[in-house]
Amino acid sequence: MKELKSIKYWIFDLDNTLYSGKTRVFEQVDKKMSEYISKKLNVSTAEAKEIQKNYFHEYNTTLNGMIKNHKIDADEFLEFVHNIDIDFLKKDLILGEELKKLDGKKIIFTNGSKKHALNVTERIGIDHYFDDIFDIIDCEFVPKPAIQPYKKLVEKHKIDPKLCGFVEDIARNLKPAYEMGMKTVWIENDEPWAKKFSDGDFIDFKTNNLSEFLKQINLLKAA
Residue 49 contacts by C-beta under 8 Å, 6 or more apart in sequence? Predict the structure, then answer.
């Protein structure tokens, strides 16, 4: 991990990365997407689920598929699917402490909305540790892992990719970051769609505990 001592920029995915996937927050979003598709396309919930799954795999996000094939209102979609209950989420004081100690600019890079990212990070008490939230609207609705949003993020914040660390739970989203020269960290999980390609050589580090991983980096830098 010594090469992480020189990192000056930290980019974090949001869902199932800055909070545990075991909380099932994104499961609520997933259900809301099926509901939206069912109502918008006048199909059964089962059909909506199948459309949702197919669009996710073909277009990297369900939203992208809905925009391309049905010309939906993206803002309406984002507002609807992120209107979920997160009151059960607890403050993550340990992660907050490690983010506070972590040197460098810290940015959230999400295929979701800024509003959702703020709602979640405020709830778990880590919102004030980030310098920016770069969301799907900033990406002009082109989602990870397409290379364009990575380039837009790097350009906006004048990031040297060789001095950047990128943390994600969806393995394939790390590939463009690695190819740009970033150090990549995969949040280990058992979701089939997230762990696919997790044995790729574009993953530099793996962890199942982000707080502990950041603690090790902070200890290294302090040494």
Answer: 34
Assign residue 123 a region (left: φ > 0; alpha: ψ between -120 and 50; beta: otherwise): alpha
Contact (CB, 8 A) for 18 and 98? no
**pLDDT per residue as tens, the chain (223 positions):** 888 999 999 999 999 999 998 898 989 999 999 999 999 999 999 999 999 999 999 999 999 999 999 999 999 999 999 999 999 999 999 999 999 999 999 999 999 999 999 999 999 999 999 999 999 999 999 999 999 999 999 999 999 999 999 999 999 999 999 999 999 999 999 999 899 999 999 999 999 999 999 999 999 988 8
Cis peptide before 192 (omega within 30 of 0): no
d(CA 80, CA 166): 29
AA letter at 137: I
d(CA 132, CA 13): 12
For the chain, counts of helices (H) and of strands (E) = 10, 6
